[in-house]
Specification:
Oligomer: single chain
Keywords: Hydrolase
Low-confidence stretches: 1-5
Distance between the termini: 78 Å
Organism: Streptomyces pratisoli
EC number: 3.1.1.103
Number of helices: 11
Protein name: Serine hydrolase domain-containing protein
CATH topology of the largest domain: Beta-lactamase
Number of domains: 2
Shape: globular
Largest sheet: 8 strands, antiparallel
CATH superfamily of the largest domain: DD-peptidase/beta-lactamase superfamily
Strand content: 15-25%
CATH architecture of the largest domain: 3-Layer(aba) Sandwich
Structural class: alpha+beta
Enzyme class: hydrolase
Radius of gyration: 26 Å
CATH class of the largest domain: Alpha Beta
Strand order of the largest sheet: 12-13-14-15-16-17-18-19
Order of helices and strands: HEEEHHHHHEEHEHHEEEEEHHEEEEEEEE
Helix content: 10-25%
């Protein structure tokens, strides 16, 4: 199945379907659905099933488990952007009486608040949420296992608290806020807190025999914001486009970029995996993928987005264990990115030239290290080392005539032009570092001064 907007090559489609078929066969799953989106539009979907002639499609609902957490995180960022809270606020400020109120909202979002991973017994994923009617029942008597802010420790209970935070600030149930603020604006009409036909049934497959049994489907109650949702491959492709580019109806591109930025330390030996604000961030074969995995009894799910390539992949399965949806989704994205790499945008000159900015371009020196400064669209600047290693960054123009660093070492730092009394440029100041037109320019205000003898050779 392809989108009317842009078809993939037949060879690419075959490779994608082969990967989905392999995931279903080797993973011993009753069914697997895969879908790929490119530049925000679904361009392919395919499925395999153990029932001949009855494969699901991209409109079939599966339970997506912890992918729900990303939706909850978006709702929290919306509260921040509306000025109703700050991510550095302690939870206690907005949701008092939990017993873990000193944890910050940012720490809860990034799983670094020190909370336990699960609620007390019985196993919450296979029992009704009515067994845990209060937050105290979810948290238990000893909810904190680690010092706050010191390590990443995945916590379902933390996202339960975030769901209750949303309800406290909005004054509405979490699911109503979710529907109004995310699902409806993004056109995700097939995403819901309960199953809606057509939907897959959840199954457990015996590890030592080719037999299976149905898994129970429970309403998770207070823990719904951690894993309740059902969705489809098509709906998740729409959500993937939002995670790549943002949507001002839901969350700005800058705020989505903030979600995609690592916010928690990686565990020792896991340098290819970290966590942002409600998003997993992984490295696979030199590609950075953002998204989330999910599992509940009877279901597995994964959504990965390769923002650089503009490719997203979704894989859904109705088995408790077996197929690695995370690996399969990463490989679907890789297949498209390698077989049909995106075309770069055509180069276009700027609509107008600002001579004062053009004067700043070219080579600059921090001490003896050479850098290039390039003027790009929207009066932005790019600073990059001309040889060897060095600290480069992109800079966004500010109304006051300065620039703010967007990435790398200089993220958030201010770049400004320092002029002499006659208006001529003396040097650039970047977070107190002085960049001059020649190495240690004696005419510029180089900290520590420049030796009066100037440059010299080796005296013999």
């Amino acid at each position: 199945m392809t989108s009317p907007f842009e078809a993939l090559l037949p060879s690419t489609e075959r490779a994608l379907l082969h990967r989905v078929a392999t995931a279903q066969s080797e993973g011993r799953a009753p069914s697997v659905v895969g879908a790929v989106a490119r530049d925000g539009r679904q361009v392919w979907s395919g499925a395999r099933s153990c029932v001949e002639g009855h494969a699901p499609d991209a409109d079939t609902q599966y339970r997506i488990g912890s992918l729900t957490k990303t939706f909850t995180a978006v709702l929290v960022l919306r509260l921040r952007d509306a000025g109703l809270l700050n991510l550095g606020d302690p939870l206690e400020k907005h949701l008092p009486g939990t017993g873990v109120g000193e944890a910050s909202i940012a720490q809860l979002l990034s799983h670094s608040a020190g909370l336990a991973a699960e609620s007390p017994a019985p196993w919450w994923e296979r029992t009704p949420g009515s067994l845990r009617p209060e937050l105290g029942d979810v948290l238990g008597d000893a909810p904190l296992l680690h010092p706050m802010g010191r390590r990443h420790h995945y916590s379902n209970t933390g996202y339960t608290l975030l769901g209750s935070l949303i309800e406290a600030v909005r004054g509405e149930p979490w699911e109503e806020v979710l529907r109004r603020e995310i699902l409806e604006p993004l056109g995700m009409s097939r995403t819901s807190t309960g199953p809606q036909a057509p939907h897959a049934g959840g199954w457990a497959v015996h590890p030592w025999a080719d037999v299976m049994m149905p898994e129970p489907v429970e309403d998770l109650g207070l823990m719904a914001p951690a894993g309740q949702l059902w969705s489809t491959a098509s709906d998740l492709c729409r959500f993937a486009g939002f995670l790549a580019d943002g949507d001002d109806r839901v969350l700005s591109a800058d705020s989505v970029q903030e979600m995609r930025t690592p916010a928690a330390p990686a565990e020792a030996g896991e340098w290819d995996s970290t966590y942002g604000l409600g998003l997993q961030i992984v490295r696979r074969e030199a590609r950075t993928l953002i998204g989330h995995t999910g599992s509940l009894p009877g279901f597995l799910a994964c959504l990965w987005v390769d923002v650089d390539e503009g490719v997203a992949a979704v894989v859904l399965a109705n088995a408790t264990s077996g197929p690695s949806t995370a690996v399969a989704a990463a490989e679907l994205a890789r297949i498209v990115a390698e077989a049909e790499p995106r075309f770069p945008e055509p180069w276009r000159p700027m609509p107008e030239v600002d001579e004062a900015l053009l004067e700043l371009t070219g080579s600059w020196y921090w001490g003896t290290s050479a850098f290039g400064l390039k003027l790009v669209a929207d009066r932005a600047m790019e600073l990059y080392p001309l040889w060897g290693n060095g600290r480069g960054s992109r800079f966004r123009a500010c109304p006051d005539g300065t620039w703010t660093g967007l990435d790398g070492y200089y993220t958030g730092e201010t770049l400004r032009v320092v002029r002499r009394p006659d208006g001529a440029v003396s040097h650039l100041d970047l977070g107190s570092f002085v960049f001059t037109r020649s190495p240690y320019d004696p005419a510029a205000a180089v900290p520590g001064g420049v030796d009066e003898g100037g440059w010299r050779g080796l005296s013999m």
